[in-house]
Amino acid sequence: MVERIAVVGLGLIGGSLGLALKQAKGDELEIIGFARRPETASEAVRRGVVDGTEAQLARAVSRADVVVIATPVLTIKDILRDIADYLSPNSIVTDTGSTKVQIMKWAREYLPSTVSFIGGHPMTGKETTGLEEAEPGLFQDCVYCLTQESDQEASRAIQEIVEWVGARPLFISAEEHDELVAGISHLPILLSSALVSVLARSPLWPQMAKLAATGYRDSTRLASGSPELNYGICSTNQRAIIAWIDRYIEELNEYRHLVLEGEQELEKSFLKTREMRERWLENVGRRFKKNLPMDSRESRVRRRGWEGD
To answer: Fewer CB within 10 A of the end CB, N or C, for the chain?
Structure first.
């Protein structure tokens, strides 16, 4: 039975997780937080994100039934190493990182055999970060990926926590997870950043900047994300991301040909991609559109985010 959860990292994801758990379970569940910055820890207590905080990481995790590591990917390695000797026997460790293969390797390397590790990745987020952006409804109806390399009892416990915060657990292998999110989550980050770069470096940018409106804003939204977070994602999922970059370049070259030739096939391609996106919105995005007026439905999908981080 899970009675005490330690949340390591009190930014957007960790903060939202704490708020959602307190909203769902109230005093039934004790939540202890850890943050590098004392002011963040104090603010988390003030906002009711956690019941209390510890200044030392070891003390935060020592009596926890479940430890959730909600930090950038590259930080997770050091945290796993640092908490290994202080975890309670039979406790469960999970994370919220955007890649899974490398994190699972770190967990196998550093954690004792008496501890279960289940990788996690909630498919939700914003381009902004920090505790001030945390909200209890962030996980509502989102897919929450879980990589299972542990016993069934630990898996059920984490699944239950995921359901407490309103998310939908999906068990998936680490390898499949990384390949899939490289396309729908990591590639868009690079496309957004590349679009900013290619335009901002142009001598025409000062003039273009005056004309840039919602199309440019929406297409480049992910470039406003955390550089630390995005670097960690790319450096731990290189093979899969590069494969999708290569496929995107091939597709872009096809569009280049269609534009150059001025063929009607270009219009047909636009029609086809519009239909594909509309089908996605009707199927996967259906839950974001409930009880929303037509003009706000798509903006809600963007705001809640499917990009993960």
So the answer is: N
CATH architecture type of domain 4-173: 3-Layer(aba) Sandwich (3.40)
Compute CA distances 117 → 103, 114, 254, whole Å. Answer: 10, 10, 44
The strands making up 143-148's β-sheet, listed across from edge to edge, are 52-53, 30-34, 4-8, 66-69, 92-95, 116-122, 143-148, 168-171
Type of residue at 64: A
pLDDT, tens digit, 9 for 90 and up, residues 21-68: 999 999 999 999 999 999 999 999 999 999 999 999 999 999 999 999
- CA 188/CA 230 separation, integer angstroms: 11
Assign 134 to helix, strand or coil: coil
Residue 55: CB atoms within 10 A of its CB come to 10
147: nearest Cα among 173, 122, 123, 115: 173
Looking at residue 257, its amino acid is H
Work out the number of other CB atoms within 10 angstroms of the CB of residue 44. Answer: 26
Cβ partners under 8 Å of residue 91, min gap 6:
61, 64, 65, 66, 67, 115, 116
Amino acid at 154: A
Report domain extents, the chain: 4-173, 176-304
As a whole number of angstroms, the distance between CA 153 and CA 151 comes to 6
Q: Which two tokens stand for residue 279?
A: 């089908």
CATH number of the domain at 176-304, out of 3.90.1200.10, 3.40.50.150, 1.10.760.10, 1.10.3660.10? Answer: 1.10.3660.10
Q: What is the pLDDT of residues 84-117, one digit of tens each?
A: 999 999 999 999 999 999 999 999 999 999 999 9
Question: In DSSP terms, which residues pair with 33 in a beta bridge?
Answer: 7, 53
Collapsing DSSP states into helix, strand and coil, what is residue 120?
strand
Instruction: Kindly state the tokens that stand for 88.
Output: 């309670």
Angle made by CA atoms 40, 46, 52, in degrees to the nearest 5: 75
Give the separation between CA 11 and CA 75, rounded to whole angstroms: 13
